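Re: beginner question about structure tokens

> Can someone show what the tokenized structure looks like for a real chain? I only ever see the sequence side.

Sure, here's an example I had lying around. Input first:
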Amino acid sequence: MPVGIFTVQDIINEGLQLLGVLEPGGTLSSAQYADCLRTLEWIEDEWNSQEGLVPNLVSATWPLVAGRSQYAIGFNAVAPDFNGLRPQRLTLANVYDGTGSSRYRIPLRIESVIDLASHSMVAPTGYPYPEAVTLYNQPDALGSKQLQFWPPPVAPTIVELVYPPEMFSTANDLTTTVQLPSPYLRAFTYHFAISIAPKFGVRPTGDLITQAATSLRNVRNINAQPIKRGDSGPVYWSYITGSYEKAH
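And the corresponding structure tokens:
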């Protein structure tokens, strides 16, 4: 099995083996696995809310249908909705115009729900492409989030979304294949072990806690985005150098 590609059950089994409550090659009852899966999903849910723990950005494109403004995005979405990784938030959005070598990107505004609610209730017509997009962060019953484009385009086009994906971001079960960037597998495994330990009457060792903290630090470090500094852009006070610097 390639490095970085495992199932949800692999993560659970590895964490239980670290605790010493499962022998290598051993298995649990279906009820115990269901309980472990719930604990793992709650860790995922908490980490998705922390910017420093969300994986690096992805870029994906989907077709927009003429006259349609709302799309679901998620693992269970079916075309013309967007089947793919569920976004935690949007970083960049574009539509494509032109064909072949003359194709170019047209940026879309990323609006909040409040921004969207401030528009006229009747969307204007005749626009060749949307001007803005809003992400509704509350998943629906199928685990998909909703994207609202304003106004709807009068002709089919292509939208490009750049965003940090939620971890796993799928309809999780024990056989779901988990594809995570390094070093998430180790971090998830060790923190799952610590979180599930009380349910098995086990106290995590100091070494396990230390390794969990180290793995979490490694995840934060790999996701850290350095500030680009140059001669242009606004001026900021740097508490590191004790002077004003320009950044962009």
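Each token stands for a local structural state, so reading them left to right follows the chain. Residues 58-163 form one domain.
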